[in-house]
Amino acid sequence: MSKKNKVEQSPRREFIFQKKNYLFMFIGVACIALGFILMSGGGSDDPNVFNPEIYNFRRIRLAPTLVLIGLGIEVYAILLNPHKKKD
Q1: Helix then strand then coil, % of the chain, to nearest 5
Q2: Which of 11, 23, 38, 63 has the fewest Cβ atoms surrounding its Cβ within 10 A?
């Protein structure tokens, strides 16, 4: 009888990522998407006309910074251990 009870009891399966991980992943993806959206545009319909708008602060500094911050948040979300207990 004791062998049968041991066989029937299997360890409970848990997911690696928890709600907190997925929350940070969503924030990171949203930050990356916002960065790419801010990078878009600024082109000219006529290829003979130069539009200096492609070199403004938003497309050169802000958007790539947001993408890099989003990637950093993604790395943090993957490495975050939600099972860690505070003592």
Answers
A1: 65, 0, 35
A2: 11
